[in-house]
Amino acid sequence: MESEQTLLALIQARRSIRRTLDRPVSREVIGRLLEAARWAPSAHNRQPWRFAVIESAERRARLAAAMGERLRTDLAADRLAPDAIERQVQRSYKRISSAPLVIVFFLSLADMDCYPDPARQEAERLMAVQSVALAAQNMLLQAHSEGLGVCWMCAPLFCPDVVRAELSLPEDWIAQGLLTIGYPAEERQKSREPFETRVRWY
């Protein structure tokens, strides 16, 4: 019971932290984050997750800039005002480039089952997506237990080709999101709706 309460307290205390200190995260700690992710449940136990660990400030800045260019193009096509576009692009760039550590998580369907019909194939893809999300959640909670601040960004979903090209990754690595990771430079509060508003009992 005590361990269950400790886990629940850890989950409840986690926050999305967007500002971090200029302090590196050790390889030992990064190893524990990846180990936590590795033990997530996955469809058929195929472990379809892949990770790119970006410690280099130069590589983070290059990735942020490349993703920012795609974001700028997309928002311009949406006819957003130029000043609003630049605010969004710069906010995204700063979050990614200023974090001491970025881990991008990817989906690979290379080891998943193949079906002749679209409906089952889509279900198989979704199972793999869910598996990758579970691995990322394990990593996020492990990071919180290590005293790190983490923010989950879904931006790579909108430009998987850009991310793959910038990091020179195989074709089957499909970007799902990224975690900006560092030691917190802010405190944040959050709330949740009562579970009674989201649950039906039978």
What is the count of helical runs? Answer: 6
- How does the overall form come out from the CA principal axes? globular
Helix content: 40-55%
Could you state the order of secondary-structure elements as H and E?
HHEHHEHEHE
The CATH topology assignment of the domain at 16-54 and 99-186 is NADH Oxidase
Rounded Rg: 18 Å
Output the structural class.
alpha+beta
CATH-derived architecture of the domain at 16-54 and 99-186: 3-Layer(aba) Sandwich
Mean pLDDT comes to 95
CATH H-level superfamily title of the domain at 16-54 and 99-186: NADH Oxidase
Q: Are there runs of 5+ residues with pLDDT below 50, and where?
A: none
Oligomer: single chain
Distance between the termini: 26 Å
Beta-strand proportion: 5-15%
Largest sheet descriptor: 4 strands, antiparallel
Question: Class of the domain at 16-54 and 99-186, according to the CATH hierarchy?
Answer: Alpha Beta
